Amino acid sequence: MKKDFIFFIWLGIWFTGSLLVLFFTQGLGDHSDGLMHYMLAKYAHIHPENFLDPWAKTGYTTVAWPFAQFGLKGAMFMNILCAGTSMWLVYKISKHLQIKHAWIAFIVLSLSTYYFKLMFSGLTEHVFSLVLITVIYLLLKNKWLIGTLILSSLPFFRQEGYIIMAALIPFYLYKRKFRFIPLLSSAFILVGLIGGIYYHNMMWIVRSNPYGYSQSYGSGPWWAFCIKLYYNIGLVNLLFLILGIITLFVTLLSSRFKKGATEFLLVFFPFFSFFIAHSLFWYLGIFHSMGLQRVLNCVTPLMAIIAAFGVSKILSGISEKFRTPVMAIMTIPLVIYPFLPGQSNVNPKKDFALTEYERRMRDACEFINIHYEHSLIYAEHPLIPYFLDIDPFDTRKMRRIFQIDLSKVQAGDIILWENDLAGTQSGLPVKMLFENKRFAGKRSFQTKNDYIVVFECKQ
């Protein structure tokens, strides 16, 4: 009970701090995918197809929809709730696994810097991680039916759910729960039937995969995600994670797999499979991988449990006389380090404020609202409908620049061009607009590396 009291005191401090950040933050967390996921959820009741959008993810959009009605901060609040619940579950799981110092797990998770920073966004990782850790908890508690049904839905929160499903099958085999394995297809069948009725095409779910094998944003070294781990969870947490992995393998081998098998199959193997998969995707340049650090937030709760396993094993091997001082020596850096100056640590002025590019984009949108409030907008970047506060899926208000036919743009319409997505991804050179006599550049906004121009169609 005393240790539970410590947990709830820490959770209260963490939750209060998170709410203060939520109240004062002006940042967006992620101004690309995060904003798109938020807007897909916000307008899903107007555009029901958003609930079935394979990129938006049916599970995420469904969960996020009520929160998104309160704006982006509503989606951020949802992420805070997901992270807080995940902290409670990693604590419960650690206790069930008889990790003596289970409190280390929720401390590690709460102080994983990138996991904390990106709570304040519309990204999907925190919801995914909560669903994942819920499945782990249910399977550990022998709630096989509900655990398997929820696990079957994991790919509809993020595509990596298929990796996790495959990685957990050995645990089903180890526990001889063969009859539950076919149920892993439950959500796929259910969502497939709903979409088949809506689209009048029963094969839609197979044909709509947004992450083709050969699609690539580039590639990088195979060890890239090893470095990203440091920036994702911080130096102290990383050392604890490495310690946890080493002690887990030592426990397995020294006991001839009689101890640590559950921890290995239920916690470590899903984490390891996820980590290796993303390392390979980025190295080979497949499945639309961008080598993004933030994907590791999906399995940060698993890392916290592994770290707690290792630290607890070390502390348990120390005599009572020295255990408290050693615990303090290990805990103090864990708590202090995330707030020290450093690239991987929390920097409130940078992490919770608009970037210069976002401020310039806001200025461009304010210019449009003042001078062209009722004009049809052609744009590509998610920041634009966000700052204009318009439905980006309503073609009466906004249309994408991607594959635009300039000859069909009508007088009075506005093109908001920026070099990021409109210029690079959509392939519309700004020079083409300047040289076209039908368009007039009305205002430009610049940063050191970015260029934004508002064009009006004159005729």
Question: What would your notes on this structure say?
Answer:
α4 runs parallel beside α15, α12 packs across α13 and α13 crosses α14. β4 and β5 form a beta hairpin. The protein has 21 helices and 5 strands. The chain has a 5-stranded mixed β-sheet. It is globular. The model has no long low-confidence stretch (mean pLDDT 91). With 459 residues, the chain is mostly helical. The chain has 2 domains: 350 residues, no CATH class; 102 residues.
Summarize the structure.
The chain has 459 residues and is mainly alpha-helical. The chain has helices at residues 2-24, 33-42, 58-68, 72-96, 103-110, 113-117, 125-140, 144-153, 161-174, 186-199, 204-207, 224-233, 235-254, 261-284, 300-316, 320-336, 348-351, 356-371, 383-388, 421-425, 430-435, and strands at residues 377-379, 398-400, 414-418, 439-446, 451-457. The chain folds into 2 domains: 2-351, no CATH class; 356-457.
Q: How confident is the prediction overall: mean pLDDT?
A: 91
Largest sheet: 5 strands, mixed
Spatial shape: globular
Tell me the number of structural domains.
Answer: 2
Contiguous runs where pLDDT drops below 50 for at least 5 residues: none
Radius of gyration: 24 Å
Q: How do the SSEs run, as a string of H and E? A: HHHHHHHHHHHHHHHHHHEHEEHHEE
Percent range of helical residues: 55-70%
- Can you list the strand order of the major beta sheet? 2-1-3-5-4
Secondary structure tally: strands: 5
Would you tell me the structural class of the helices and strands? mainly alpha
List the total number of helices.
21
Q: CA-to-CA gap between the ends? A: 74 Å
Strand content: 5-15%
